[in-house]
DNA sequence: ACCGGTAATTGGTATTACCACTTTTCTGAA
DNA sequence: TTCAGAAAAGTGGTAATACCAATTACCGGT
């Protein structure tokens, strides 16, 4: 790769991220044409199929339109909203999770069954195992949170939480969010989840809410920290604003 | 192609559509694994790169998760992102709104702009007018709540609240919820919304959260009351359970 | 200046090969 | 018999190449 690549993901995902970054930076205005696939392949030193996969990822997100025999043209810039679902940033999704999942945890504490608790406890152990592997997935983490949402016995609550996780997965910074934000603090993550489980087992709504808030606050902090590492100066200002915003909202 | 193809699009798009159809038809439940890329290529008589492109399209849409060396696993079924769930009851939706919109209001109180306040105040007046007509709609009510969600400046929060209102509209008891639950108390509804607005104008998160909780608690009470009128004896027991559940969760 | 046809460019698809990772199966030792 | 470790099979990831189809640009003739 001529350019820097960050994640341990697949090449096409890294390349798609790079292209999205260049789009966001304004390298290719709306309506302009991206370089030819062969040129991109040569520039990034990858094969053309890989370039095609990355461009298809952009196409599915509604960022570019591919015209046969002509090229890939920019439809909209990342962040502008008309494409459903793909405009929420990792911070926004996590903030929404902080607000919603905390309340869901409180409700779940009043509704949780012994079967739910058994399932959640099993997932707790899976999370511990999962976190031992630096390249592990976050499937157990996702299942843990969804199990809590399901324990509310409220379909609307569950679907809302489920949608947030779908948004999270589609977020451009999803990988970053998962990687960096967690690798920094493995032990606390397990402890935080344990605290949530214990509050649920105690059927204590207030404790469950508090434990969930603590956990997701830590996730946000890790996310902001990870973002800071690669942020420009202007991004730093936005982060500072977010930090105070979050502090006020949770006060 | 062994199977029928419809569009004049590119092969990968046709194939992606086919796979989504099969997903929707239930051929591959959530969590199950799709056939191997080579098998799909043989079955549809296309090349493996084409299959890969189609799967990447599904992956970007958050439908499947691809695990290296293992396969592509179904994350969610198509349509579950915004397709109205027919199984969510009016009570569930309102309960979810109580949990989520209260937190959204608290966040909005820290983010609301003067323009937002002007819009919300205008909608407040519309709500008052709307409630004078016993056969009026609830458009202003909906716009009021969505404006608050938008004032959070968080796309994920707004979309979640928006989805709840979509669920509400598709709920079987939607009409009942709106009619009965409101006709019983016209004046309080306006007062409750006014309290929410004033808390937002004061930029007071705690007050905004409390005002929203008060309002939606009243909606739930009205909903339960309306339900009681037509409920059988067994329904009464369920309602009593819900009442205590709700009381505990908000305590 | 206009028109039309040809050639170059570009995306679409197929084929093949090899690598890395995962999962299963088999084998040999305890 | 059991089970841990190794081997093998399965699967996705990427590369390289070739050819086709559609578009676009160019250039010649009129």
TrEMBL record, chains A, B:
Keywords: DNA-binding, Transcription, Transcription regulation
The keyword Methyltransferase is annotated on this UniProt entry: no
InterPro entries noted in UniProt: GntR_C (IPR011711), TF_FadR/GntR_C (IPR008920), Tscrpt_reg_HTH_GntR (IPR000524), WH-like_DNA-bd_sf (IPR036388), WH_DNA-bd_sf (IPR036390)
A Pfam entry, by short name: GntR
Regions that span the bilayer: none
Ranges where the HTH gntR-type domain occurs: 9-77
SMART domains from the UniProt entry: FCD, HTH_GNTR
Coiled coil: none
Top-level lineage group: Bacteria
Protein name: FadR/GntR family transcriptional regulator
Organism: Novosphingobium pokkalii
